[in-house]
Design goal:
The chain is of the alpha+beta class. It contains 3 helices and 3 strands, in the order αααβββ. 21% of the residues are buried.
């Protein structure tokens, strides 16, 4: 009975570590996705005013859009944990992509230090209704 109880305790701890690691991955993915989407939305706010006032279609100022998206990402509380950030803007769309490393508890025991979480967001300028 003692051996069975000890075996059950080991299995229970392994399950707890797996659930904790899974929750870390999910929470990090959600936070990173929210940050990337917010940065893309911020970048989509920089329309080319000269073209808009001339009556052309609404389009982005790519340089300003990338600057606003970068500022938005820098203001995130976990901005220093982003591993790789890629921002590209055209007059039609802005795309923001970022990676973040997540330290895992259980997999550390078998030699793996963590996983990389990737998120990508896009936004386009549009006229108000």
């Amino acid at each position: 009975m003692v051996i069975w109880t000890m075996g059950l305790a080991v299995v229970l701890f392994a399950v707890i570590y797996l659930v904790t690691d899974a929750w870390r991955l999910i929470a990090t993915d959600r936070a990173l996705s929210a940050a990337v989407d917010a940065a893309a939305a911020a970048g989509a706010n920089s329309i080319d005013e000269d073209a808009f006032r001339a009556g052309a279609t609404v389009r982005l100022d790519p340089g300003q859009a990338e600057t606003l998206a970068r500022q938005s990402l820098a203001e995130q509380p976990d901005a220093d944990l982003f591993v790789d950030v890629a921002i590209s803007a055209t007059p039609d769309r802005i795309t923001v992509a970022a990676d973040r490393s997540v330290q895992l508890l259980l997999l550390r025991f078998i030699g793996e230090s963590g996983r990389l979480v990737h998120a990508e967001g896009q936004s386009t300028p549009r006229r108000s209704p």
